[in-house]
Amino acid sequence: MKTDMKYAVAVLVDGDNASFENLEDVMGFVSRHGNAIIRRIYGDWTRKPLSGWKDAAGEHGFRLVQASSFASGKTPRTSPWS
């Protein structure tokens, strides 16, 4: 017996290290496999380079979550703990 059950999916985005230009493709992929019930984009929203995320987030119902940068020029990729 085949069912059309879709999964409940959380979409959590690192806005500092991902491009908003890919969000449309990501959401298309997610919609084929499940329902995005949690949609969040994490980033330091005080930084100008993240301004492009704001429109994209609104179009897809994402919540913007402030994740402050504590060290200048450091991202999780370049931190000593990665």
TrEMBL record:
Domain NYN, chain residue ranges per copy: 9-67
What is the protein name given in its UniProt record? NYN domain-containing protein
Gene Ontology molecular function terms on file? RNA nuclease activity
Q: Which Pfam families match?
A: NYN
- Which InterPro entries does the UniProt entry name for this protein? NYN (IPR021139)
Superkingdom per UniProt? Bacteria
Starting at the broadest rank, the lineage of the source organism is: Bacteria, Pseudomonadati, Bacteroidota, Bacteroidia, Bacteroidales
